[in-house]
């Protein structure tokens, strides 16, 4: 029921294995995974030989229009929001009596599978958390909250000798803010959202009935990061305070503080994935700098070893939070995907232009509206450019907002300086200031990095009159 907590339970492992079947031009070669919503197959396109991952909706959901609509929305979001740390969707269709999504097949393992081998050292755990945050930044920039960040929904693969983490499974995603250019086949709030996800990773406010937003995703990344570091999941956040549970970790203190900031209650949590990512990057720069200085002192190594130098400074692995390479796009996949459906009219590709995605006519004709036996049209392929933080190869925000010394602008413009504190360009905040009184943000006392940034600006430039600034 809407608003009520509900956890999904996985169907039995032999549930719906359609290996060997053919859906249109796709041959289902082998099942590579399954979840509560669907099974995933490695599938070969008979026309081209290209390999895809086909996510096939479990048949028991076929008669549930909401499940089918959400499946379609999952495809639309995955097709339109591209980032190296997400998995691109190329097609969505109803063929051979099955609803399915075609996407890139990732040859790797889930974080859950990796954790079966035990906890992951902090350098690597942090790099995984960073990469998932980068994927989240891309989603959040387009107004979409993922709402099921968990080790089950994180794939790890090796690309050019480096590990890359990919966040996937947008089946529970929610369009929180309608961003320009996002084409969806259903109104974001028209479908009641069940509150379900992966136990131990769901943010406490969602367990209490909130629909979940960007900060709920931040909690989930924090819970995942904790699990990667310890090999154990957090207890139910309604039963135990996650911040207290995560107090003792083998993590440099500055990063530990960032992790605790992700597990805080909603209002005290990091206000955006971009700022959390920026804070981690800054922390890692500091740690690398300290290590370099330590190396310069290596002639004194015997003496240093007598001192209690924390183990994480002595570790050999350099901690990184690097931009991954762009997703390599096999020509066959990219070229084939829009023409998947042999029958009927083909929808032209969506092109990402400077202002966003231009929608072609016909997008509405997807999914359950298709009468039985008629093949619906494919999801149009957008230009597969990464859309967000890593676009220019450099993070948009490499430091937490409070470090931006906007106040040095000349001539000083208070509104512009405060705008630089916003967690992301589409965020809406209302700042109420009055001489000699504490600033209020959206009617509340300032908290987190946003609060610190706003207070920094106002400390440097105390207001002379009361005013409310809407940004
Ligand atoms: N693109 C992919 N490439 C390879 N394996 C995948 C891919 N997508 C999903 N999987 C596998 O299938 C499993 C279930 O996929 P998921 O999308 O999470 O389904 P559900 O929505 O039912 O939870 C994943 O945990 C993973 O093992
Ligand atoms: Mg899943």
UniProtKB/TrEMBL annotation:
One of its GO terms (molecular function) is protein serine/threonine kinase activity. Residues 26-304 form the Protein kinase domain. InterPro entries: Kinase-like_dom_sf (IPR011009), Prot_kinase_dom (IPR000719). Keywords: ATP-binding, Kinase, Nucleotide-binding, Transferase. SUPFAM superfamilies: Protein kinase-like (PK-like). It comes from the Bacteria. The keyword Ion transport does not apply. This is Protein kinase domain-containing protein. It comes from Nannocystis exedens.
């Amino acid at each position: 029921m809407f608003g009520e907590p509900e956890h999904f339970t996985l169907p039995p492992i032999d549930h719906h294995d359609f290996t060997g079947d053919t859906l249109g031009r796709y041959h289902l070669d082998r099942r590579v995974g399954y979840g509560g919503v669907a099974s995933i197959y490695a599938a070969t396109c008979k026309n081209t030989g290209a390999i895809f991952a086909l996510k096939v909706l479990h048949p028991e959901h076929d008669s549930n229009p909401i499940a089918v609509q959400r499946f379609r929305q999952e495809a639309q979001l995955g097709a339109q929001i591209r980032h190296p740390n997400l998995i691109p969707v190329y097609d969505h269709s109803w063929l051979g009596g099955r609803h399915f999504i075609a996407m890139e097949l990732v040859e790797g393992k889930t974080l859950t599978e990796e954790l079966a081998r035990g906890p992951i050292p902090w350098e690597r755990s942090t790099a995984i958390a960073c990469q998932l945050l980068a994927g989240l930044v891309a989603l959040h920039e387009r107004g979409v909250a993922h709402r099921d960040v968990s080790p089950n929904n994180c794939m790890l693969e090796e690309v050019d000798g480096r590990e890359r983490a990919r966040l996937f499974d947008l089946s529970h995603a929610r369009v929180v803010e309608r961003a320009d250019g996002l084409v969806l086949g259903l109104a974001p709030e028209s479908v009641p959202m069940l509150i379900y996800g992966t136990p131990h990773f769901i943010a406490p406010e969602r367990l209490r009935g909130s629909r979940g937003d960007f900060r709920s995703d931040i909690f989930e990344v924090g819970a995942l990061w904790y699990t990667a570091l310890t090999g154990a999941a957090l207890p139910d956040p309604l039963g135990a305070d996650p911040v207290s549970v995560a107090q003792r970790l083998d993590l440099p203190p500055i990063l530990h503080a960032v992790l605790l900031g992700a597990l805080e209650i909603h209002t005290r949590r990091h206000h955006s994935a971009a700022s959390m990512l920026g804070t981690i990057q800054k922390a890692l720069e500091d740690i690398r700098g300290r290590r370099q200085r330590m190396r310069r002192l290596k002639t004194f190594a015997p003496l240093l070893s007598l001192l209690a130098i924390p183990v994480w400074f002595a570790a050999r692995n350099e901690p990184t939070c690097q931009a991954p390479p762009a997703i390599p796009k096999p020509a066959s996949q990219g070229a084939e995907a829009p023409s998947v459906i042999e029958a009927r009219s083909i929808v032209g590709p969506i092109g990402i232009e400077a202002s966003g995605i231009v929608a072609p006519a016909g997008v509405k004709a997807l999914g359950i509206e298709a009468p039985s036996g008629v093949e619906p049209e494919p999801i149009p392929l957008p230009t597969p450019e990464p859309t967000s933080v890593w676009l220019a190869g450099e993070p948009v925000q490499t430091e937490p907002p409070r470090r931006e010394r906007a106040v040095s602008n000349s001539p000083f413009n208070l509104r512009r300086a405060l705008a630089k504190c916003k967690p992301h360009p589409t965020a809406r905040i209302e700042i109420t200031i009055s001489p000699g009184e504490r600033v209020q943000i959206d009617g509340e006392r300032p908290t987190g990095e946003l609060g610190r940034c706003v207070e920094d600006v106002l400390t440097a430039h105390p207001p002379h009159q009361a005013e409310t600034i809407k940004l």
